[in-house]
Specification:
about 300 residues; alpha/beta; D-Maltodextrin-Binding Protein, domain 2; 2 domains
Length: about 300
Amino acid sequence: MMRFLTTTALCALVATPALAWKEDYAVLKFGILSGENEKDRLMRNEPLRAFLEEELGVEVEIFTAGNYDGVIQAMAADQIEIGRFGSSSYAAAYTATNGGVIPTLTTLNQDGSTGYYSIVVARCDSGIESLADAEGKVHAFADPDSTSGYAVPYFNMINVEEIIPEEFFGTVTFSGSHEAGVQGVYNGTFDTAATWMDNPQSSVYTRMEDKGMITAGEICTIWESPEITSGPWTFRSNLPEELIEDVTTAIEAFPTADPEGYKLYSSWTADNENPEVGFQRVNHERYQWIVDMREWIRDQRRSG
């Protein structure tokens, strides 16, 4: 009997830490950025939400906001536990929380890469085939906290292309989201817009074509950045370590446990030669250069 009680007690001690965080976090909220319209954002993330809820045994809710900063501030105010950020919005959250966030996972592509690209697009029939052709035109960045939609193209325009956007373009504005920027180009509101692509077969505008939002073949890429590290799944650092690890492990398991759900989540298409296949562990060092770049952009604004 003594051996049985001792074994039971030991098992209870081992099991307790893994279960303890659920007593304080019966509901987990994860925030997703406004890269596309809210209906599609919720639809794409629903399989993951449902999987995490079943896997973790707690209620899981999706938090959305009208812009990137809404999710960043929700994280800073402890209103959400987890955020799926881009690289620049992660850096913004890192700054807003004085380093109080922990990145754990980023997207892994089939070829082993973990990056994507910023691009500038124009209508194919506009006669704009390069940034040089866009001088004096109306250009839209996506959001001030977007990596591919603002930070990377803005930095590269000045430091690589040697153009100052506010002086080079006739008008510089923010569209509010990647889809809105592409839609604005398609409709003629903007001449060019900054957005992202994983590869030529997978980008904001190809997804919009697949969803019937725009006609295929009307939008063309006129500029492409160097590769950007994909943004991370990010946790508040004031959460229990066991919670962070349990949720991270569950997200890692999602592609294998629910392949069809993962296809919807990752916007898989049959013609994409390098689709997303899962996740890879990351830490803050991977994104420090983005923090530094954002500080450079902030200094440019102040001096300008």
